[in-house]
Design brief:
five-stranded mixed β-sheet, Beta-Lactamase, 528 residues, five-stranded antiparallel β-sheet, 13 helices, alpha+beta, Heat Shock Protein 90
Length: 528
């Protein structure tokens, strides 16, 4: 068998992140990571900048070609005025070179500079900071370096690469450079007429840099506001989740330590979400656990008390047996000791059954059980064994059934056995015990009635307590453990049913114990 492949190295890190990192950090991290992905849109502004430059290149090419066509159509006398007019009107610098590459006209010399480069040293700090951010973004994006603009000395056509390329190809060539303040400087070289004159236009496109910075600034402001709101909402969400969970953890730890039985797990009644459901489930679980612990402690104390009585009797009989020489008295003491041993054995057996009955029923697979068949089979077996001591047990169906329930047949038989034992022990020697079975709409009831003295109203719940024994007169002490009805009610509850005590319905003297169980889902039929 092939060995399982080792987990990639990233898995331990992920387990460490999910197991050791608090919920607050995780909530903050998830929201900030999402904002980080949004911040990546800052990089897409570079495409916006390239789009602006592309449009400006196209405009520079068109401007150079139009200006070259106008200059070519003008007379040599008109050229000077036309170059100065275009430069001043379009905020351009136009330079005209003759066929030998000599500078003939310069719009800055004709009408004065249409623009001026900014000295970075004279700018305020925030502009220098903005330029630093621009350089950082260009470095992150891997943008190509742009050559710095500088007027050549001497100024002739050979000093401008774009003019050289235009003279060689005849095409209009556009070139980008950077001003001292790192704003774009766009030059366009175009051929003028057929004599070999060349035109160079120059524009300082500071507006492109400003528009890109404005877009970045707007996005940064939006991201900053979103980040603040996201952190506040994350902290609020963390408080609504983490703080209640921590309160539940602290309460659970105090309950586990058991130092303060008055510790209450907060139920958070105002919360209808999953945390509220968890809090109430933990509170209910803690309450049930405490009840179980109290029941175990009470049961242990009752067990010790119940076993101590026969042990004391057995000890007394054995100690006396050594001192007695009379054979009749020795026989009587031996009988007492044997009775106490049987009583202890019965107690231990029923105590063990009562202790494990809940756990066994929680693992038992319930099947369809016909209560009528179960009762008839049990009564027939008791009659065959002679367990009824002359008392007549009658099974009386009250309708046509069906009487099918979901349950464990062996446990339900034990319940019926205990109920009949209890009824037979209280009935007169020649009396009868009636077992009545009735099908209702959603449950089946099995009632066991006797002709004994009945059960006082104040004792109708106590008889189901463990080791509570309300026995008939004349019965030998210790014949019953006081666990039979307690076990029967436990089994009934495990079957989602009830076991209750009442008076006989016909008004006669006697008790009536009623077992109610829900019908099986596949059991159909109408009661009559």
């Amino acid at each position: 068998m092939a060995e399982p492949a080792a987990l990639p190295p990233r898995w331990p890190l992920r387990r460490q992140w999910t197991r050791r990192t608090s919920l607050t950090v995780r909530i903050l991290a998830v929201n900030i990571i999402a904002l980080g992905l949004m911040a990546g849109s800052l990089f897409y502004i570079d495409s916006y900048r390239k789009q602006l430059l592309g449009e400006r290149f196209q405009l520079a090419r068109s401007e150079a070609q139009i200006a070259a066509a106008g200059i070519a159509a003008s007379t040599p006398r008109e050229r000077r005025n036309l170059i100065g007019l275009i430069g001043a009107d379009q905020h351009l610098r136009l330079r005209l070179y003759d066929a030998q590459g000599k500078l003939v006209h310069d719009s800055f010399a004709i009408t004065g500079p249409a623009y001026a480069f900014t000295d970075p040293a004279a700018d305020p700090w925030y502009l220098n900071t903005a330029r630093g951010l621009d350089r950082s973004m260009n470095w992150i994006l891997g943008s190509a370096d742009v050559p710095t603009y500088a007027d050549p000395h001497p100024d002739n056509a050979a000093a401008w690469p774009e003019l050289v390329r235009t003279r060689a190809s005849g095409e209009t060539i556009v070139q980008q450079r950077a001003a001292p303040d790192e704003t774009p400087v766009i030059t366009a070289a175009a051929k003028v007429g057929a004599r070999g004159d060349l035109l160079l236009t120059t524009r300082n496109a500071r507006d492109i840099t400003q528009r890109v910075r404005d877009a970045r600034q707007t996005l940064v402001i939006v991201l900053a506001i979103t980040l603040i709101i996201s952190i506040q909402l994350s902290l609020f969400l963390a408080r609504t989740i983490v703080q209640p969970l921590r309160a539940l953890v602290r309460a659970a730890i105090r309950v586990r330590l058991g130092r303060d039985r008055a510790v209450e797990v907060p139920r958070l009644p105002g919360r209808g979400d999953e945390i509220g459901l968890l809090a109430r489930a933990l509170s209910d679980m803690t309450g049930a656990l405490r009840q179980r612990i109290d029941a175990v402690e009470t049961f242990a104390a009752d067990v010790a008390h119940e076993i101590k009585n026969p042990l004391a009797s057995l000890r007394s009989a054995l100690e006396s047996l050594e001192k007695v020489t009379d054979n009749g008295l020795r026989t009587e003491l031996t009988a007492i000791a044997a009775h106490d041993v049987r009583r202890i054995d019965r107690l231990v057996t029923e105590i063990a059954e009562a202790s494990r009955i809940d756990a066994e029923l929680s693992r038992t697979q319930f099947d369809d059980v016909d209560l009528m068949t179960l009762a008839e089979t049990l009564v027939h077996a008791r009659n065959a064994r002679g367990d009824n001591a002359g008392r007549q047990i009658r099974v009386e169906p009250q309708d046509a059934g069906p009487w099918t329930v979901k349950g464990d047949a062996a446990r339900l038989e034990r319940v019926l056995e205990n109920l009949i034992d209890n009824a037979a022990s209280f009935s007169p020697a020649d009396g009868a015990v009636e077992v009545e079975i009735t099908r209702h709409e959603d449950h089946v009831s099995l009632a066991v009635s006797d002709h004994g003295p009945g059960i006082p109203v104040h004792a109708r719940e106590k008889i189901f307590d463990r080791f509570h024994s309300l026995r008939p007169e004349g019965e030998q002490f210790g014949s019953h453990s006081g666990l039979g009805l307690a076990i029967a009610r436990t089994v009934a509850a495990a079957h989602d049913g009830t076991l209750t005590a009442h008076d006989r319905e016909d008004g006669k003297s006697g008790a009536r114990l009623v077992l109610d169980l829900p019908v099986a889902e596949n059991a159909h039929g109408d009661s009559e």
